[in-house]
């Protein structure tokens, strides 16, 4: 019979595995918005998003509401890694009636304790930050905002449930005229334990309480804490796992003894897990086992066991002494005899076995819960192996060494991928509460500074509407014959008057110069589609920035090489030349270079017709079969290539190394070109928007630093806010400023970050990737020799988001001006138009296109704009311009 009872109390490993996976499921349910309401394990957000970094410093007041007393502490942190905080504390006993009285009386009492404590220590500090340890389930929405969900542990004060307890405490403190005391943070006791155990460099990211009750908390990935919106990084979650099993999940392991304990408790059916683990219940479970065994005559033969029928006769401390190897048997005898029983030697031995079984089961269940937390952390952080510190507090762990051993071993078996180091909490929760308060204050101050630094980069809707209006104004200036010379947006006619209609046919050569790569292509436009063969050629910087002759000679050499390889030497194909620099176009095949951009500076080209330069080079190289039909900008090429499939595509947009746009304007509006009929594609050259100073108030100090280090200072100002060549640089300068202000990388100097262009724009894409574990962000930064803490990574991510969002929104403001003008041109209430887009930044950045489209919709609500990503816009597009030009003229 005894064996049977012991067996019922022993949970096999496979069963513990099941408990672990049920706990995992329950945790997920609590984390998810959809299922949170009915979840037993509530996974409450605590708004504690950071573990201490050891720099916390200052004096803090802590108030802890405990079972039968209030504890006040004065904690001085020295900024030494929290190794030696100085703590003064005082305990104020609390009358039983306060626990069940009015809420006002409770908080008044707490405030009086604070008053008296402060009088005792006679601090002269100006402002005193207070951390409040409040060990009840709260719905927290900020570090200092927490609604009590429900009382427990014998408390039932009126008018507190559903109210913000921080406010209640602050009001009571104000009533005491302690206006210099600010309640800065509220936390659960588990969180306090976790923080207490965070020492110096090694953070503690999990805490367990195994005392009267049981609970746990851990640092979860904030994106998974759906109840706390808009937070990134990590957040400590208070699991409230005592309620695990309230939906019946644990019924397979519940024994008749557990059922009896539950039935006799004040809250039957609730806190089923806690009733298996918490010390408040262990004595009761044992009592019921003993009653059952005695009734079956397996124990206390001949004794009157009525005494065992009264509740709580077995105290936890007695149980813990009985199970001790040394003196345990004697203690068992003493305890049983004190109850008036006459135990035999064998009875004592059996009672000891029962006690051990019940406590071991508690430890094993606790391990199953811990294993669930660890596996969850390991998985959500996308780690193969998790190494973590676990702070543990509570009398079961403190007073019975075997509990810790079982906890450690079983956790290891259930979560073999995790290595947990259990740390005993030293000063309960008080010290931790001071640290939380300090961290809260530090983060709030940092947040203010970061916001202040980034504020100029965060453009409001009103700002963007202003940019849109300015763009519109500059467009008009650029189109006007007299005003064109003074406009920052050049609005260059392209002599492209038609978009493709799908009837174009033939083989064409194309050149693409002005992007990252120089390419030569052959494009075959046929009934059944377009086929392209191309080759990329390198243009060495020496040639980019050498003489014009050398540059164009090099281009011809590349063409000849390509024709040779493609076996095209014998043919004279019409050639479309994508030349992505600002040109004054005088005809489809006549384009005067106005200025180099994007790192080119070859001499003797500005002011010359680039088609002529190409033809001259061909002659020098004796390459006679070259027939240049059209020179186009890459924006035009992009529009044309998308226009082949979608006739509504009348806008081209580039967001790559640089940025630019073109669109179909009414010829009558183009003051710089003769003619009133039809439309002409206008190459806006919008990258130069703002070069006349009209955007000066949008530029930040970071933009100016970036501009100063470019080869075209003061030029292409709009482009320098948006495109791939510059975003990384802007981020780099912001990061340097954050380091300078000690807000990043602990203010440690970062020599590598001083290097121009070291922070590439593609890093923004990878750092902003959704669901990317922050470890990977750290990895990206590590490549730059930047040792990023977790908080650093989040801040870098925020900087990247701010910069790329501004770029996308500015781009939207520019496009809004374009589509609205087109709509008005055509006298439409609603315009439906498509934009062909090219550029790696647009295509590869995880959020750029979405942010651009959303903002455009907001700024131009009467236009329905469809975005098409062009495939090889500059290659295919140039050929299509040539094809459209040849349309009808040749077979
Ligand atoms: P171009 O504009 O010269 O024709 P691209 O459209 O390919 O060339 O754009 C190149 C630019 O895109 C580079 O300057 C780089 O800054 C940026 N870039 C490259 N990879 C990425 C990426 N993964 N995410 C965002 N930007 C990128
Ligand atoms: Mg390009």
Provide key terms for this protein.
binds magnesium ion, alpha/beta, mannokinase activity, binds adenosine-5'-diphosphate, kinase, Nucleotidyltransferase, domain 5, 26 strands, about 900 residues, six-stranded mixed sheet
Characterise the protein shown here.
The chain has a domain at 482-685 and 871-887: Nucleotidyltransferase, domain 5 (2-Layer Sandwich). It is built from 29 helices and 26 strands. Strand 16 and strand 17 form a beta hairpin. The chain starts with a helix and ends in a 5-residue tail after the last helix. The relative contact order is 0.09. The site of adenosine-5'-diphosphate (ADP) has 14 residues, from helix 23, helix 24 and helix 27.
Q: Which CATH class of the domain at 482-685 and 871-887 applies here?
A: Alpha Beta
Classify the beta-strand content into a percent band: 15-25%
**Order of adjacent strands in the largest pleated sheet:** 1-11-10-9-12-13
What is the overall shape?
elongated
Write out the distinct hetero groups bound to the structure: adenosine-5'-diphosphate, magnesium ion
Report the biggest beta sheet as strand number plus sense, adding barrel if it closes: 6 strands, mixed
Mean pLDDT: 91
Count of discrete alpha- or pi-helical segments spanning 4 or more residues: 29
The CATH architecture of the domain at 482-685 and 871-887 is: 2-Layer Sandwich
> What share of residues is helical?
40-55%
Compute the gyration radius: what is it? 37 Å
EC number: 2.7.1.1
Pathway: Carbohydrate metabolism; hexose metabolism; Carbohydrate degradation; glycolysis; D-glyceraldehyde 3-phosphate and glycerone phosphate from D-glucose: step 1/4
Enzyme class: transferase
Signal peptide: 1-21
